[in-house]
Design brief:
The complex is a heterodimer of chains A (about 625) and B (about 260). Chain A is mainly alpha-helical. Chain A contains 27 helices and 4 strands. In chain A, strands 1-2 form a two-stranded antiparallel sheet. In chain A, strands 3-4 form a two-stranded antiparallel sheet. Chain B is built from 13 helices and no strands. Chain B has 2 domains: about 1-210, Fumarate Reductase Cytochrome B subunit, CATH 1.20.950; about 220-255, no CATH class. Classes of the chains: A mainly alpha (about 625), B mainly alpha (about 260). The interface of A and B includes residues 378, 379, 397, 414 and 424 of A.
């Protein structure tokens, strides 16, 4: 029994360190206690505590499904520990999340403020509901001990099947949705990991991890309490897991092949090495080993294979969760000691509760017996104080609490002074948007920019609701949306002709053969030229000829027409400054009139003479933005 | 030496302070758990709570109680405790250190009052030690830590008073400061593991006595058995305990 005492002492010690670090984290904030930053906001806590934790707890829904739905009664002996592990695992996830959230007291917001577009919203709800389901599934076990709770217990046992089904549904949803979280960042996750079927991969790997976790935990607790291992049962479990491993491998590589990313496998970057290590210990090696029946029942391998696979899949979660992200501000993120301590102590806490439950309630068929609680045992004396510490219960209580406080005190002493002299949580209240009337936008800071009538945009797009139209589009590598995100026709070719308008009764009301000739194919080339009807379309003496019915985007047309003409005239007039930007964009960095967006020339006055910018332009080519004006010249 | 002082005021202080706080909380919780268990084990579950609360409050201010028997001791003891609690917590220099390190602080007492309280603590501490050592009954009741504690508690007060009040050279000052810091740390470190834990256990002490001095029926037999005797040795007078449980057991045996 010394094993279990030593193990518990270690867990309490870890918990003590965690208490010290956790206190510092909540008093002084995330900035000083972690290596997380604005460019690396998700680290070990999300990768391991949340994503790994949820996957580690997948054993619960798999085994309840196996036993209560597929009626494989032989697994009945390990369903209770699996449910307990799942229950505690999810609580650990919630606790771990509290450490990671910047404003943990707002965790309930998702219940009231719904954002149904977010996978995180789904994950949050599913985890919450599944935790409830697990509580209801687990509750009958401790309730056995209290006769007062019999009614409730029987009611819950009747509800078991619906609960199991709900558990499976919820698990399927959120195990995969954790993968969906990363679908939003195709530019960030390394191509070896990013895949449109990340949710599927997450789900399959969660199943394998659940199975492996159940076998590992059974093996470990058997060792801890010196009880008999369910070797045959574990062998069957591993045998089933083998097929899931195989499916995982096929899907993973199939996906890589389908996306054409197999080429990445040959590279020498550290991510590639990481990929191979991960996939090897997750699935490749286990699937080979588990195919050999002798190895499947060998106790040593029953230790090694689950550990290997668990490590591999948790590594996968950490990888997807942030380790292999690219474009992370070129900062290397390594979890700090404090982060590791918190993660370890969350696990230690869950393990302690697990051990308590196992000793107190009927989780296993046979409750572990503690030889020290035998009343005929002669009490032992503490070697230091030479006094009896009392009954084992009292003595252990004394030792564990001592380990806890000593670790906490040492933890506080070891915290760097930087952590402790921090000014604490700096409040940064959300400021109201400045929303100036007109803003000077000069993204590349070259001094050439454009006056952006901000107030006007707000007015035209629905007042305060308009902000999200531009500011929260979350385009990759972009903080606010570009003009062209809304003004899509800004640079695009467009139809200057408007066939439908010419043909419709409410427009020009022309018949087909008013323009097209009867025996010829009806297309632009064979139709009547514009100027036959619109005599004033091309002004007298214009340098522009009509060639087709495409117009370039209005920004381009403005630039090309004006700059083209100006640069042409610059030589003849001997005014080399004529085509310079500053001739038109005079109002640099000054607040200008709300009409700044309008063409500075009196557009309206010349409206009758307006020239359709119909120029010779191949519609297949993208607009040439680098060489403004050339298209006009070419067209002549 | 400066580095050692800073270490004593920094990491070592944090270690000792946290250990003191958590250790006191620990011993408080353990005592309560032990009490609850003892109460559950006891056959006699009657606890005179009102009487206990009265007694506890009375011993918190024992002057009146001691006035009839040992008025001098009562006065000295209360003075010692008052100074011991107030000076370390509310000395302006200490409050300032809290302000600088953790960012919050509380009110402080004026310098003059602090000095007087310090002198009172030093004098009363030494007097308490002498009273214990000089009386025969006191010596008989004392353990080693009972002699050590009054002297140890006085050390940081003496050094603190010297540091703040007398013009000594920088080397001597640092030495005094070092003794001050390290002895205070040592005190904090030892508080939860020695009799000074009474600082948090005072509200419980009367309760513990009332609850735990109730032996379960047949406790004597268990002691004898634990000590390894087959039957009662000759030097033990076998107790005639006829508790309700024993009577009940006897009746059951007779009935069978």
């Amino acid at each position: 029994m010394n094993r279990i005492y030593t193990f518990k002492t270690i867990l309490w010690t870890i918990l003590g360190f965690g208490a010290a670090v956790g206190t510092a984290r909540f008093i002084y904030g995330l900035g000083v206690t972690t290596n997380l930053s604005d460019s690396v906001p998700w680290g070990l806590w999300i990768g391991f505590d949340v994503m790994g934790g949820v996957a580690l707890a997948a054993g619960g829904f798999i085994l309840t499904a196996t036993v209560y739905i597929f009626r494989l009664e032989k697994f009945h002996g390990i369903v209770r520990p699996a449910v307990l592990t799942a229950f505690l695992g999810y609580i650990a996830v919630a606790v771990g999340l509290l450490f990671d959230l910047g404003l943990p007291w707002n965790i309930w917001h998702m219940i009231i403020f719904w954002n149904p577009h977010s996978p995180l919203f789904e994950v949050g709800w599913c985890v919450m509901l599944y935790l409830t389901v697990l509580l209801l599934e687990f509750f009958p076990i401790p309730a056995e001990e209290f006769s007062k709770l019999n009614k409730l217990r029987n009611f819950l046992l009747k509800l078991r099947l619906p609960l199991v089904i709900a558990g499976i549904a919820l698990s399927t949803l959120h195990q995969s949705s954790l993968g969906s979280l990363f679908l939003i960042m195709p530019y960030n996750v390394h191509p070896l990991w990013y895949s449109p079927i990340l949710p599927v991969l997450f789900f399959i790997s969660a199943i394998t991890l659940g199975l492996m976790m159940v076998s590992f935990e059974s093996k470990f607790t058997s060792w801890l309490y010196r009880r008999e291992t369910e070797t045959d049962l574990l062998a069957k479990l591993c045998s089933a897991a083998r097929w899931v491993f195989l499916i995982y491998i096929i899907v993973r590589f199939g996906d890589l092949a389908f996306r054409g990313q197999l080429g990445h496998l040959g590279g020498g970057e550290w991510q590639v090495v990481m990929f191979w290590v991960e996939i090897a210990i997750t699935a490749l090696i286990p699937v080979i080993l588990l195919s050999i029946p002798k190895i499947r029942i060998a106790p040593v391998w029953q230790w090694i294979i689950p550990m290997m696979s668990i490590f591999g899949i948790v590594l996968n979660r950490i990888n997807v969760g942030g380790l292999v992200h690219i474009n992370r501000g070129n900062t290397l993120y390594l979890p700090s000691l404090t982060e590791i301590t918190i993660s370890a102590s969350v696990v230690a806490g869950a393990a302690l509760v697990f051990l308590y439950m196992v000793e107190r309630y009927k989780i296993w068929e046979k409750r572990p017996a503690d030889p020290n609680t035998d009343p005929t045992k002669i009490p032992e004396f503490d070697f230091a104080s030479r006094t009896s510490l009392g009954t084992p219960e009292v003595a252990l209580r004394t030792k564990y609490s001592l380990a806890f406080i000593l670790a906490a005190a040492v933890g506080f002493a070891l915290l760097s002074t930087e952590n402790l002299s921090s000014a604490g949580t700096e409040s940064s209240p959300a400021k109201e948007a400045r929303g100036w009337e007109t803003m000077w936008i000069d993204g590349d800071l070259d001094g050439e920019g454009t006056a952006f009538p901000h107030a006007k945009h707000i007015d035209n797009n629905g007042k305060e609701k308009s902000c999200v139209l531009c500011h929260h589009m979350n385009l990759p590598l972009d903080n606010s949306s570009q003009c062209s995100a809304c003004h899509r026709d800004m640079y695009l070719l467009s139809d200057a002709f408007g066939h439908d308008r010419h043909a419709s009764a409410s427009g020009a009301g022309l018949k087909c053969f008013d323009c097209h000739k009867k025996d010829l194919t009806k297309n632009a080339d064979t139709a009547k030229p514009c100027k036959d009807c619109h005599g004033d379309l091309v002004a007298e003496g214009s340098t522009i000829t009509v060639e087709n019915y495409r117009t370039i985007g209005y920004v381009e047309s403005m630039h090309r027409l004006c700059i083209g003409c100006h640069s042409q005239k610059a030589d003849s007039l001997e005014k080399p400054d004529l085509p310079r930007c500053a001739n038109c964009h005079k109002e640099k960095r000054t607040i200008i009139s709300p009409d700044a967006g309008v063409h500075p020339h009196q557009y309206g006055a010349e409206k009758d003479n307006v020239i359709f910018p119909i120029v010779s332009y191949n519609s297949e080519q993208p607009p040439d933005t680098t060489n403004t004006g050339s298209a006009v010249e070419n067209s002549r | 030496m400066q580095a050692w002082i800073e270490f004593g005021q920094g990491p070592l202080f944090r270690l000792c302070f946290v250990l003191m706080i958590l250790g006191l909380i620990r011993i408080f919780i353990l005592t309560i758990i032990g009490m609850v268990e003892a109460l559950n084990r006891n056959t006699d579950k009657i606890v005179p709570y009102r009487d206990l609360i009265q007694k506890t409050l009375m011993w918190l201010f024992p002057i009146k109680h001691l006035w009839t028997k040992r008025p001098f001791y009562g006065l000295i003891s209360v003075l010692f405790h008052v100074g011991l609690l107030i000076v370390p917590l509310f000395l302006a220099a200490h409050v300032l250190m809290w302000k600088n390190s953790v960012g919050f602080a509380w009110f402080s007492i004026p310098r003059g009052l602090a000095d007087w309280l310090t002198i009172i603590v030093i004098v009363t501490g030494i007097v308490l030690f002498l009273m214990r050592a000089s009386s025969k009954a006191g010596r008989a009741l004392s353990r080693k830590q009972d002699y050590i504690w009054p002297l140890l508690l006085v050390v940081p007060f003496i050094t603190g008073y010297i540091c703040s009040n007398s013009a000594i050279g920088p080397a001597a000052y640092q030495l005094m400061m070092m003794v001050h810091v390290y002895s205070a740390n040592l005190i904090m470190l030892m508080i939860p593991f020695t009799k000074i834990a009474h600082c948090i256990l005072v509200p419980l002490s009367q309760l513990v006595t009332a609850i735990s001095w109730k032996f379960p029926a047949g406790a004597g037999d268990m002691v004898i058995e634990t000590l390894g005797y087959k039957e009662y040795p000759t030097w033990v007078k076998k107790p005639r305990l006829e508790t309700p449980v024993e009577l009940k057991v006897k009746e059951e045996i007779n009935a069978e």
